[in-house]
């Protein structure tokens, strides 16, 4: 009897504890920001490979602190902000000799990656600080000797002597919406992630820099309504699919001769997405590409006279993705990664054109970390433990033996010290926040930097469900998927299904990694009785080149087929109501959700499209033509999978959302979709966020957006 009594008490306690768990609210997600785990930021390896620095907030000041890798102990404070009357520091960089710091303050964001700041130069050894210039400038960068700083201002490239303060104008022809020197135009920044467009030579005697002539590029304009009686207008150059690009040239500037030399190449390349100095300070490597982006020349250029030669050419029947894995090694070798055998793998090449493939298999190298030339070991992250996971490996270059260094399946993200003696690793799973640890290069753990125990304990207060992984097998493909079920899931009940989609080329939403704030929005919907699911269609990443590139010249076709077939699969499950299936996406995902509710009108009863592309003719040419060629060459590919051309099929509830100041996916896409819907006499819901860009955030905006989407789902699905 006593045992039964104790058992009943235990059951009662368990029931009480379970019932006390809280449901998530939108306010907790988007106003109180309760669902952000801690991270380790500003991890910066120092030159000796034995120390690292971080920027930390200490009481009322900012400090840049030097730590020892092996012990994790603080060595010294390098900088204290309250010692000087300067604004808040946003980021910092060392000079090559680590005697000086460049401190960026009052940073003003321009586009996705670009910004301008007021910079200060701080001498660590003399404890002196001075402002670089009173103006906000872009991309301030120390020379290799630390005696000069190059920067961009008003579309021109400048060099300032730190000791004398003398400023040299490398270029003088910079003009907004006409000529850009040392920085990139909008489309290079967005699609090639080329931002700072100049590079110091290793000996500091030359700077290689880009010149963008935007004269023939058409302009796009946006009205801004931030107060005032009349709106203002932002006008910038934006080359849409099939339209003219900037004319791009690369120059060498010789600091001694005070002279710029144009690099004339035999081919007139449409794109030059990368430049990088070799270990030889007189030789620059340059990537030259055709407009279709399926042919890349690796060009070596002599800085003395601009003479050049093509070392090798890589071709692809679809397209070539640009990467930053190029690493020059001692003894005239370098690292290159390529998808030419069907999966992204590592190659070692030399300057005679010979190559050796280092990694091989039906899996992808997702990150290259470096080569320890002394020990003949190469470090990389790959999908060898499954396409939804990322694991760190080291491979012996002589014997070929390979060792997995990370111990936990999930998404491992790694940063190595200079010299590859140590690394910091963060690992998360779909249902656990990141854990940050410090290791020696052989994988031995030295220290836990942050385990997010407090965050995980706090999450135990909430009524959460596990994110479950599985595959959806259709007649066309096997697709990775995840699902979140209601906490009180009953397999004998029927639930409405809410699908999330992105689906763009090379992307992955089905990953064994911590999902951030959206994960908790999905949990909130599950708590309200919805099953939430996501499927990575064909065209996404992690499964090799053919899986990713099957959508070539027909963006939207196979992706939509897969999402419709996945929805049909879900609708065939006993516990899902096939008449209540909704879908939501942002950007490319908004394009996908718009196609789903039109082409898949008999399957989907609701769709939300945030900042969608509605016709690829309206999007930029580098991204679009990489996958579609030009509209002039492939008109049917553009038109047959444009949601605008399928609006007459719409049956369900459709919510269209866009930011009025979206410089990326222009609100023109939504306006054209509205016109098509009205012409077809289709009812829909619409919301425009004035002066908000592609991210639609700031102030109360995110909360407002997610409340609008939540209310729309609760009312209509």
Structure in words:
- 17% of the residues lie in helices and 36% in strands.
- With 717 residues, the protein is α+β, with helices and mostly antiparallel strands.
- It folds into 3 domains: 171-315, no CATH class; 331-429 and 432-461, Prolyl oligopeptidase, N-terminal domain (Methylamine Dehydrogenase, Chain H), CATH 2.130.10; 466-716, Alpha/Beta hydrolase fold, catalytic domain (Rossmann fold).
- It has an 8-stranded mixed sheet with strand order 36-37-39-38-40-41-42-43, with helices on both faces. Strands 13, 14, 15, 18 and 19 form a 5-stranded antiparallel sheet that branches. A 4-stranded antiparallel sheet has the order 1-2-3-4, with no helix packed on it.
- Strand 6 and strand 7 form a beta hairpin.
- Helix 7 crosses helix 8.
- 43% of the residues are buried.
Structural class, please? Answer: alpha+beta
Provide the CATH architecture of the largest domain. 3-Layer(aba) Sandwich
How many helices?
Answer: 12
Number of strands: 43
Highest CATH level, the class of the largest domain: Alpha Beta
What is CATH's topology name of the largest domain? Answer: Rossmann fold
* Order of strands across the main sheet: 36-37-39-38-40-41-42-43
- Mean of the pLDDT scores? 94
The rounded distance between the terminal residues' Cα atoms is 50 Å
Strand fraction equals: 35-45%
CATH superfamily of the largest domain: Alpha/Beta hydrolase fold, catalytic domain
Largest sheet: 8 strands, mixed
- Count of the domains: 3
Shape by Cα distribution: globular
What integer value in Å does the Rg equal? 27 Å
The parts where pLDDT drops under 50 for at least 5 residues are 1-18
Portion of residues within helices = 10-25%
């Amino acid at each position: 009897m006593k045992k039964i009594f104790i058992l009943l008490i235990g059951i009662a306690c368990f029931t009480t504890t379970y019932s006390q768990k809280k449901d998530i609210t939108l306010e907790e997600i988007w106003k109180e920001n309760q669902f952000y785990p801690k991270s380790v930021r500003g991890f910066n390896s120092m030159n000796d490979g034995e120390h690292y620095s971080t920027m930390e907030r200490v009481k009322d000041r900012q400090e840049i602190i030097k730590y020892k890798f092996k012990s994790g102990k603080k060595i010294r404070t390098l900088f204290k902000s309250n010692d000087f009357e300067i604004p808040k520091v946003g980021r910092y960089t060392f000079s090559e000799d680590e005697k000086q710091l460049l401190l960026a303050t009052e940073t003003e964001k321009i586009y996705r990656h670009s910004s301008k700041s007021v910079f200060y130069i701080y001498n660590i050894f003399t404890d002196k600080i001075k402002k670089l210039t009173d103006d906000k400038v872009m991309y301030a960068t120390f020379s290799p000797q630390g005696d000069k700083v190059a920067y961009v201002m008003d579309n021109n490239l400048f060099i300032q002597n730190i000791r004398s303060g003398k400023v040299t104008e490398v270029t003088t022809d910079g003009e907004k919406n006409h000529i850009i020197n040392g920085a990139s135009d909008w489309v290079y920044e967005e699609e090639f992630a080329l931002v700072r467009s100049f590079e110091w030579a290793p000996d500091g005697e030359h700077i290689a820099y880009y010149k963008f002539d935007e004269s023939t590029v058409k302009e796009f304009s946006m009205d801004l309504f931030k107060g005032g009686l009349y709106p203002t207008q932002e006008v910038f150059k934006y080359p849409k699919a099939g339209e003219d690009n900037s004319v791009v040239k690369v120059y060498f500037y010789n600091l001694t001769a005070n002279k710029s030399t144009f690099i004339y190449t035999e081919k007139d390349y449409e794109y030059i997405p990368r430049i990088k100095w070799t270990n030889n300070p007189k030789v620059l490597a340059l990537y030259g590409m055709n407009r279709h982006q399926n042919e890349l020349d690796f060009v070596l250029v002599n800085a003395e006279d601009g003479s050049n030669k093509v070392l090798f050419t890589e071709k692809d029947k679809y397209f070539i993705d640009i990467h930053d894995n190029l690493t020059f090694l001692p003894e005239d070798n370098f690292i290159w990664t390529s998808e030419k055998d069907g999966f992204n793998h590592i190659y070692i090449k030399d300057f005679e054109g010979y190559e050796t493939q280092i990694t091989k298999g039906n899996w992808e190298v997702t990150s290259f970390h470096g080569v320890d030339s002394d020990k003949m070991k190469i470090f990389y992250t790959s999908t060898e433990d499954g396409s939804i996971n990322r694991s760190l490996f080291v491979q012996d270059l002589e014997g070929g033996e390979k060792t997995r260094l990370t111990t936990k399946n999930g998404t491992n993200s790694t940063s190595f010290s200079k010299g590859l003696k140590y690394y910091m690793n963060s690992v998360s799973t779909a249902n656990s926040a990141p854990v940050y640890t410090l290791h020696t290069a052989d994988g031995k753990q030295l220290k836990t930097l942050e385990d997010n125990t407090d965050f995980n304990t706090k999450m135990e207060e909430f009524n959460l469900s596990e994110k479950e992984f599985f595959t959806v097998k259709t007649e066309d493909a096997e697709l990775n998927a995840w699902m979140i079920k209601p906490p009180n899931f009953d397999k004998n009940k029927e639930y409405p299904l809410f699908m999330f989609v992105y689906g763009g080329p090379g992307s992955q939403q089905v990953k064994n990694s911590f999902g951030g704030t959206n994960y908790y929005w999905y949990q909130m919907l599950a708590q309200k009785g919805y099953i939430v699911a996501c499927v990575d269609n064909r065209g996404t990443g992690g499964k090799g080149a053919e899986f990713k590139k099957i959508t070539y010249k027909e963006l939207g076709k196979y992706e939509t087929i897969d999402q419709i077939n996945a929805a049909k699969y879900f609708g065939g499950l006993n516990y899902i109501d096939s008449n209540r299936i909704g879908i939501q996406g942002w950007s490319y995902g908004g394009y996908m959700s718009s196609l789903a509710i039109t082409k898949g009108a008999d399957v989907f009863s609701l769709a939300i499209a945030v900042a969608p592309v509605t016709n690829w003719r309206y999007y930029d040419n580098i991204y679009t033509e990489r996958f579609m060629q030009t509209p002039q060459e492939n008109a049917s590919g553009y038109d047959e999978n444009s949601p605008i051309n399928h609006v007459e099929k719409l049956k369900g509830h459709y919510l269209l959302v866009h930011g009025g100041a979206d410089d990326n996916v222009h609100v023109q896409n939504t306006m054209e979709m509205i016109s098509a819907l009205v012409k077809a006499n289709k009812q829909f819901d619409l919301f425009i966020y004035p002066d908000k860009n592609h991210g639609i955030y700031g102030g109360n905006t995110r909360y407002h957006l997610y409340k609008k989407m939540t209310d729309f789902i609760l009312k209509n699905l």
